[in-house]
Amino acid sequence: MEGLEQLYYLHGIGYDFTKYNGEYVVFDEATRKGALHCCGIDTSDQNLITAKNFALDVAPWMQMLAEVTLASSEMGTFELKVPSSYRGHLVDIKIFKCGVALSVNLADCREVGNYQYNNEHYIAIEVSVGALPVGYFDMEVTCNLGTFRTELWSVPKTCYNPYLGKSERKSLGLSIQLYTLKSNRNFGFGDFSDLKELVCKSANFGVDFILLNPLHMLFADQPEKASPYSPSHRCLINPLYISLDDVESIVGNACWRRFLSSTNANENRAFDGQYVDYSVVSQTKYLLFEKLYDAWAPESDACASFQLFLAEQKAELGELPLSQFEWFLQWVSSAQLERCQELATELGMSIGLVSDLAVGCTKEGMEFQAYRDCFTHGANVGAPPDPWAENGQNWGLPAPNPQKMKAHNFHYFKSLVRANMRSVGALRIDHVMALRRLWWCFTQDEKELGCYVYYPFEHLLAILKIESHLSSTIVIGEDLGVVPPEVTSSLEESAIFGNTLFYFEKNENGAFKSSEKLRSNALTMVANHDVPPFHGWWSGNDINVKLAYEIINQEQRQKQLRDREVEKGRLLDWLHEFTDGCFDMDSSSEVIYQNVMKVLAACPSQLLAIQLDDLDLQQVPVNIPGTDTEYPNWRRKLNHELVDIFEMQQEFIKQLNEIRKKQ
Questions:
Q1: What family is reported (predicted)?
Q2: Closest C-alpha among 660, 544, 541, 540 to residue 603
Q3: DSSP string over 475-500
Q4: In 43, 102, 183, 575, which residue has its Cα 20 to 30 A from 469's Cα atom?
Q5: What domains can be seen in the chain, in order of their start residue?
Q6: How far is C-alpha 234 from the chain's CA centre?
Q7: How far apart are the first and last CA of the chain?
Q8: Per-residue pLDDT tens over the stretch 45-56
Q9: How far apart are alpha carbons 533 and 541 in whole angstroms?
């Protein structure tokens, strides 16, 4: 392999893939060249291609250590690369923070690889220094070739997972879109006080976790850009989640009194309506945020917790274009989120909050600008053709450059993981396949093209393992759709939970799988934000909504309704197999749903989530994938307040928890 073909491989540009229908597809030359162009590579410059191939393939063998060296934490085993003539030499190894200082004779070590270049033979030697703590450490290796330095990553075999090896341990949780929570005090937008109330009520019924939507920072100056999956910065929090009536313990009594004397916090609250009015909510809350900041600002220099927060954030994220007012909002947001997790732990929840890391950020946002060098030029993240989108999907999120992500010892990815593991018990990673490969969408000669591009999977997975142990955070990977087999096996070996949606769990005949065959190492749910809530699905209301918003026509509606009847029949067959109940097409959605959940409660999956939308008897979807302005995505609120939902569903939740605990 040489020339462009070699560079495609070294830069992660895919060669082929298998479509959802089994069709084998080979990417053409124009597509693969286009992907390299997005990485800033002139494919007509043969000298550049030769230099790139040398830098990515040959040069690593000519260096004893790369900038990052992976080691197993159990044995402290890592690789050194040396000319074969140095096979019998001694090397001195120092890992400063671990107290390691020893000499190793390479002749006693195992050879695990080799490379030939210009009549020189290079070998990879496996060295072990003994068990190491998990983390990142500076290492220095000295020998006759010189002194070499690296960041040694001491990587555990698996992510942090207290469920590992305990098949009898099963937990029940709730999945929510926090902003949809209804109350008479939250300005029409669910906030951290609502979350505290949900934690308290859930814990009373033995619920162990609450899966949140992404809480990432969006756009204060464009409040109608509401998708939590198209954020400005994934390491920062959307300040609209701040609960203004729960800040006194953070900002202090004196500040709180000044704030109350300067404003009427009950004015202009937007409680009513089925949908969140982001413009009104944002305008109202930001006016109050500014008054709160004005009341607090005289104390800012003397506020030790704020100054510490600011120093830590800037050290991790660099100098972002945020004013002190905006950093103040981040401080308050982080403190309230932390308190929610502390409360969950105090009340006996085994996991507590589960955060959600979106797959990407927007070009207009702060994250993209801060890490511009880590991204491609002109490539967006998307998905290949599937039954729901025959032309594929372009999500409009800029694609990271797999080579540039390595900069500064993968600082960008480390910061993403750390920020989203902070103050939670578990992290859900949206589209976890992105650790291995992403579908790129780009334009070349006015033609829309797409292909898979592969990422430094081993290093990204290592960061997840290390950070999860450092923060004692469980990891859940959303692995719905076409998943490369190496990803599936690696997630399982790494004790990362998968994600199962009951709607999609079918056998080869299209029938719903036996509940006993559902994965044990998975978070199982009936639905998520991208599919209709169960009651809307059973009634077909989601199809009627699409017609009402002219997303489909009448003919398409009729076909989808016929297909839905088939699916409902399959669900009834499944229920008749696993329950003694008598159900038919005229059974209420609530009866069907509760019996489905009772069967699933006994399934092997160690994590099971109830969607709060379904407890709320919600008929309307919160999001219709593939739409933007056609449907009011990410705005639909719940029908009932939390107190009413739990009053309606308390017996049902108790029954589910009893089933889970008996297994």
A1: Belongs to the disproportionating enzyme family.
A2: 660
A3: EEE---SS--HHHHHHHHHTT-BEEE
A4: 102
A5: 3-57 (no CATH), 63-155 (2.60.40), 171-180+191-217+339-662 (3.20.20.80)
A6: 10
A7: 54
A8: 999 999 999 999
A9: 10
